[in-house]
Amino acid sequence: IAESEDMIKVAVDGLIKNGFINYYGLQRFGSASVPTHLVGATLLRGEWRSAVSLILDPREGECDDMNGVREHYKEHGDIDVAIRNFPRRLIAERAILQRLKKYPGNYLQALMAIPRTLRLRYVHSYQSYLWNHAASMRAGMYGLSGVIEGDLVYKKECPGEGTVTDASENNDDHTNASEMDIFAETLPEETIQSVKIADSEDLLKAVYTLEDVVLPLPG
After folding, report:
1. What is the pTM of this model?
2. Cα dihedral sign for 58, 59, 60, 61?
3. Which of 60, 95, 108, 178 has the most Cβ atoms closer than 10 angstroms to its Cβ?
4. Residue 179 located in a structural domain
5. Separation of alpha carbons 193 and 189, rounded Å
6. Are 202 and 208 in contact (CB under 8 A)?
7. Domain at 125, CATH number
8. Which tens digit of pLDDT belongs to each residue from 4-38?
């Protein structure tokens, strides 16, 4: 729905000409009013108590009954009542409470009770959040008209070769060749694609387009 067909045409033309930024989608950040990336940020800062609070505290958009349980725990700190009233589907909340009952005040221990896959999801969400910001900054500062000098791009000269080649070219004394071999063997060949920094020569030859531009995922 738009104000006019002209607006729709402009949007479609822009999509045809420039494509779209391949952002991490909303699913990565969860549907709750406390996004998973905020929890991930507190975990990376080592703020264990804050992370526990973000997971347990009342939150907007949740049903009144559930928020009542959260409010009661925040006000009274009654773990037994909270465990009894938190539904089993809230895995992280229940795991934290059960561990706090065993180790009162030990928030790191409480967080470690969350299943590892869920703990990693918090951190991966923050990685994705940072990547999305980096992609927006790249587009905002330099536009989407094409590759600029300094962009990181998929290497076109040797598409079949992998990161092993790049590492040896960098002449990194700390790189262990056998470790790189193992890394290469554990990935399907099509997933290993070399990257390079676009230079002035690449721009003159117009070797790369915006579709070749990539950004590293912080980790």
Report:
1. 0.73
2. negative
3. 95
4. no
5. 8
6. yes
7. 1.10.1510.30
8. 999 999 999 988 887 888 999 888 888 777 889 99
